[in-house]
Amino acid sequence: MGRRWASRRLGLALALVVVVVVLAGRCDGGVTSSFVRKTGKTVDMPLDSDVFRVPSGDNAPQQVHITQGDRDGTAVTVSWVTCDEPGSSTVLYGTTKNKIEFFAEGKYTRYKFYNYTSGYIHHCTLRNLKHDTKYYYALGIGHTLRQFWFRTPPKVGPDVPYTFGLIGDLGQTFDSNRTLSHYESNPKAQAVLYVGDLSYADNHPIHDNVRWDTWGRFVERSVAYQPWIWAAGNHEIDFAPEIGENEPFKPYRHRYHVPYKASGSTSPFWYSIKRASAYIIVLSSYSAYGKYTPQYKWLEQELPKVNRRETPWLIVLVHSPWYNSYNYHYMEGETMRVMFEPWLVQYKVDVVFSGHVHAYERSYRISNVAYNIVNRKCTPVPDQSAPVYITIGDGGNVEGLANNMTEPQPSYSAYREASFGHAIFDIKNRTHAHYAWHRNQDGNAVAADSMWFYNRYWHPIDDSATSAA
Ligand SMILES: [Fe+2]
């Protein structure tokens, strides 16, 4: 009897040891970075900061920015603001510096927001441009002429190398300035995929729209020279019925034009473009996406149009992430995920970039599309047809870092870190793209997280082991 009790106790002890070992060694997810940073308060740069300086000269054009102006990159939309009087909406341009070969006529608009009246906001689309060509352009005819330049993308094709930057939730703090400078130090980046939340003007009393103007002047040094592809975030909504402002997205819609009609969209908040070897679909977290809504019907018709033999890289931008293991904006992207994720898996989207959460996270290729209410299959599972989900809402805005994470790290999360930064998606050819995330504390050659993407159409093998985090 005594020996039996002793052996039972021994068995219990062994079982306990096994449980402890299993728990201690449990590997739930990927890497939660141990990077140690100084967490100072993020504050907006004061209005008299040099980065907000108004350009000198009579009625000088300011807040100059460009974006793709059509479906395939042979048009560029130039936008700018004049403050004293409308002035000319004409853009002079050509392929030789200081020599005007062409001109295009634009239009201007303005808006009121409570006690604020905007400047004259000009938009002008330059069309029928040659591919892969440097163009000089000038604005401000009759007043102060300012000249800039841009380079058009190569003709759309399956093996065209192209380098995108990824920035989100930038705002206009000292950290935002570090992020933008860090991005600018990359000599290869050719265009920015911007995942929403621009100025954070709405964090100021009565949505002080002067902060839309300062943001426009702040980012001009990049976006006047290379296109930023816009996705709208919640800080673009500017819905403020308490001060009589009932028209959502009013400042954003007036200031930032996108070529949505070219992709058959009925709204600037969801659209697509082709650029080099990439097909970019922009979705709107803050527009209806339920069944039969315009966005749902558009995406349903859009995905079958993507020809991976022409544009191998299928990229989706959407502000609110569908996979997020931070304790911020928990489940906000869930209903949209439920509606659209099966399509993204079916059409083998390569990567989904989001913002909203002010931190960085990269997922493994996972999907969660098997659940049918009764089968209990509601956990993300590895899926080589699924995109990688990347949260890049770490531009540095005034709301600060999201540094509180769910524990343990979920199995779908490959790498997460609460630092400000930006990323680079560097397409090499139809099969390979190198992706790197750069935190602001590092030099520009340092990648805090990186991965080789294998294209889901041309090279759909497991690429999870290529991560260098
Ligand atoms: Fe957001």
Written overview of the protein:
It is a single chain. By secondary structure, the protein is an alpha+beta fold. It contains 6 helices and 26 strands. It has helices spanning 2-24, 174-184, 210-223, 250-255, 294-302, 334-346; strands at 31-32, 62-68, 76-82, 90-94, 102-105, 107-109, 112-113, 116-117, 120-126, 134-139, 146-151, 162-167, 191-194, 228-230, 271-275, 278-282, 313-317, 351-354, 360-363, 366-367, 381-382, 388-392, 413-417, 421-427, 432-439, 449-454. Strands 1-23-19-22-18-17-16-15 form an 8-stranded mixed β-sheet, with no helix packed on it. A 6-stranded mixed β-sheet has the order 14-13-12-24-25-26, covered by helices on one side. It has a 4-stranded antiparallel β-sheet with strand order 2-3-9-6. The longest helix has 23 residues, at 2-24. The protein is globular and about 65 Å long. It starts with a helix and ends in a 15-residue tail after the last strand. Residues 12-26 have low confidence and may be disordered. Fe (ii) ion (FE2) binds at residues 169, 197, 233-235, 319, 355-356.
